[in-house]
Structures are given as C-alpha cells and as structure tokens.
Amino acid sequence: MKNKKLSQDFIKELSGNKKEPAWMLALRLKALEHFENSSLPEWGPDLSGLNFQDICYYVKPVTSPQRTWKDVPEEIKKTFEHLGVPQAERYYLAGLGAQYESEMVYHNIKEEWGKVGVIFSDTDSALKEYPKFFKKYFGTVVPCSDNKFAALNTAVWSGGSFIYVPPGVNVTIPLQAYFRINTEKMGQFERTLIIADKNSIVTYVEGCTAPTYSTASLHSAVVEIIALEGARVRYFTIQNWSKNVYNLVTKRAVAHKDSIVEWIDGNIGSGVTMKYPAVILKENGARAQMLSIAVASSAGQVQDTGGKMIHLAPETSSRIISKSISSKGGDTHYRGLVKISKGAEGVKSFVQCDTLMLDGESKAGAYPVIDTREDKVNVSHEATVSKINEDELFYIMSRGIDKVTARTLVVNGFIEPFVKLLPMEFAVEMNRLIELEMTGSIG
User: Fold this and answer.
1) Tally of CB atoms within 10 A around 119
2) Which of 217, 196, 178 is nearest to 57 (CA)?
3) CA 429 to each of CA 79, 181, 289, 443: distance values in angstroms, whole numbers, following the listed order
4) What is the per-residue pLDDT across 119-154, written as a single tens digit (0 to 9) for each?
5) Which of 80, 260, 266, 361, CA to CA, is 20 to 30 A from 280?
6) Which helix (H) or strand (E) element contains residue 261?
7) Secondary structure element (H or E) that encloses residue 23, with its range
8) How far is 312 from 309, CA to CA, in rounded Å?
C-alpha cells in the first residue's frame, strides 16, 4: 500500500484493497474522525511515547488466509511451528486461527463442527461471507465513539476472529487464535466478534507474542461478545507481548437472559498494558465472572488491568477476582467498576483484588469503583497487598525444600485460582511463563 500515514486516503486505500462494502468504509472514516477528535486518557500509565504517525498500520504477509497448513508461506509457518501452534490444533482444538502482522495467515475449523453450523472464520472473510450477522452485531458492543483506541481500531482494523455458534450447539473443545507481531513499529488491530446463539456453549483461547525491538509497537484490539439467552462463552487470553509493545485494548460482552460470560485473562508481557474486560448484564438471570492475573517483572513495566461489570437487569450476578505480582521495579494496578442501575433488584456482586510484591522497588495500586443506584442488592469488595510470608517459607523449607523452590511454590499458590481454570495444555504454558518472568525475582 502506498499510504503509510494515518489519513482518510490511507483508510480509503485499505478498505478498497480489501474490497469492503460501502458501509464499512463509511464506518472507518467516521471512526477516524472520532480518533482525531479524542484525547489520550488523563489517568493511568504514561502513553506519551506513542507516536501515531510513526506506526505501520498495515503489513500484508499473504494474499489470503489458508485453510491448509502446508500452504502457509514457509517463513511464517516456521515462526508458528516454533510456538507450537499447529500442534495445538492437531491435539487439543476444534479450530485454529493464526494472525501474522495485519492478516490471518491460517484459519481452519474441524469438519465435525462445521457440519453442525459453527462458523469460525477470519473477520475480513466474515464481512463478505456472513453479512447478515456481521452488520447486525459489528460495533454494537464497542462503538467507535467508546474511546480513542476503540476508534483507532474501528478505523484501521484488520484480521481477527469471527465466531458464530448456532442454537443449542455445545462446542466441547476450544477454538483458538494466535496473534504475532513480527515487524518493528508495527500496529496490530485485530477485531474479534463472537456470537453465541441461544443455549449454545463455546470456549475461545487467544495467545499473543512479539520479538523485542528498540522502538515501540502498538497492539490495539477490540473484542465484542454477544451471549444470547442461555448461552455460555468462555474467553481465555494469555498475553505475552515483548516489553516494547503498548497493549491498549477494549474487550466487552453483552449477556442476555440466563447467559454466562467468563473472562480468564492473563497479562504477562508488554511494556504497558491497559485492559479492563467488561460485561453488560443486560437481562434477568445473566451471570459473569472475570478472573485475571497481571505480572510486572521489570523496571518501567506497567500492568494497568481490571474488570467492569454493568448490571442493567434484576437477579444478575458477577464476580471479579484479580491477582497481580510485581517484582524488579514493575508496576501493577487494579482498576475496576461495578455499576448497578436503578431497578436492578437482587443483584449479587463480589470483587477481590490481591497483590503480591516481591521486593521493595516495585509498586502496586487498586482503584475500585462501586456505583449502585439500587438498595436491594448484595455487593462486596475485598483487597490485599502482601509480601511473601516468612512463616510460610519456614514451614515449606522445614520439609527439606530449598529457599528458591519454596518461594516459587508460594507464588504458584498465589496464582493457583487462575491457573486451575485453564485447559491443561494452557495451564502448563502459563506456569512456564510465570516461572520465566520470576527468574531472578525469587532467588
């Protein structure tokens, strides 16, 4: 593409190259206007190092997403094979998508799920192949006017996953997408849209990595989830971006009558993360849970994470459990919101945020907000900030275990509520990532 800078001409060229319908181009241009007219957040981490005109907004690695792994270009295939992605599909997953730079390079779903009507596609293809679903739901959960980075994503989005699960279908094994930034000064702006129809069940897992460069890259994704009546959606994220990446994303779900939405969110990498998965509990009986872990293990690394639960209907319930670990000068912050509308009687909400600090150089903070307009509700919040307990270490070491191993066991026990919810193969990956991040922190 000729246009490198963010502009109307670039947006028109991007949309034209993708052969998009006119309504999508109009939405992109509207979003660009929102982006240009909005400012960076005045709270949270320092984002002054971001130069939006110095970012590459689109890199096309292949001509189209492949359905057969052997057809993926060799250089890209080697990258993902090194990460274990094709093996994951063969042994554990119902379907797999792999994104390299701005496009999905591979997308496939096992035949047994395709036969019952499950759609698992890259988002660009879904725009053309499933226009009825796409136009009905795209941008309804996260509108382009929501925040500066949602506007940017809507203007320049490329790649991501589109999932539709028909009524009553239970996808018993996970669908997975893997996102890789491999270019310096790269921006990745995938857009994921998940629609779980009535009484359906689906689990989606995403992983993210990038090599380290001397200049910053930007990851600014948007995820929209619609859980219709009686549906259940589980969304796992294991984010391990390199420390030069700004990870600034917007993830939100709408839960209809008697549906369940679960976010299981791991943030291990990136230099700066701002991520607050949210659920709008729109109709009676909807339930939501958000379980997250954030690890900041180097000076200057900031994990600003949390969750939001918006109760609009009676007899809805939510639960947020946030775990964070800061070491070697790292900085973790929990930022949460529970909002209960007038008339939403019988709401139950529980929030727990715990921080483990491994040294005197690191920082941690918690900024919980509870906004309730209804009296007949049950809302509770608790928070702790702690160091490794010397009595626990003494007890473990009295069993003949060395100090480094003992401290590692304490850290593993702290994050156990998060890890035990992961599918086995991803729990192993998470434990390895934590162990790698903690090297030198607990010795």
Assistant:
1) 18
2) 217
3) 17, 19, 22, 21
4) 988 888 899 999 989 999 999 999 999 999 999 999
5) 266
6) strand 260-267
7) helix 22-37
8) 10
